[in-house]
What does this fold into?
Amino acid sequence: MTLLELKLTLPDDVAQKAKASGLLTSEAIADLLKEAVKRQQIQESLVGTDLWDEPFIGMWRDRDDMSDSSQWVRQVRVQEWQ
It folds into this structure.
């Protein structure tokens, strides 16, 4: 059997939960670890997302009526909200 040493820095609120629980059972440690890993995965999934690669960027670039987006919005408001 090989022992693995794991050093983990938990977010403050997760660490507070650990301290508040008093006894840290293997189940409690597993739950805290799962929560920390989930947060890290979410954070990593957001990093590196290039907004310019999203399909909605530039979807109206060929529309002549939207060359000035501010003017277009003003015009729509006048037409729709009178």
Notes: Helices lie at 12-20, 26-46, 69-80.
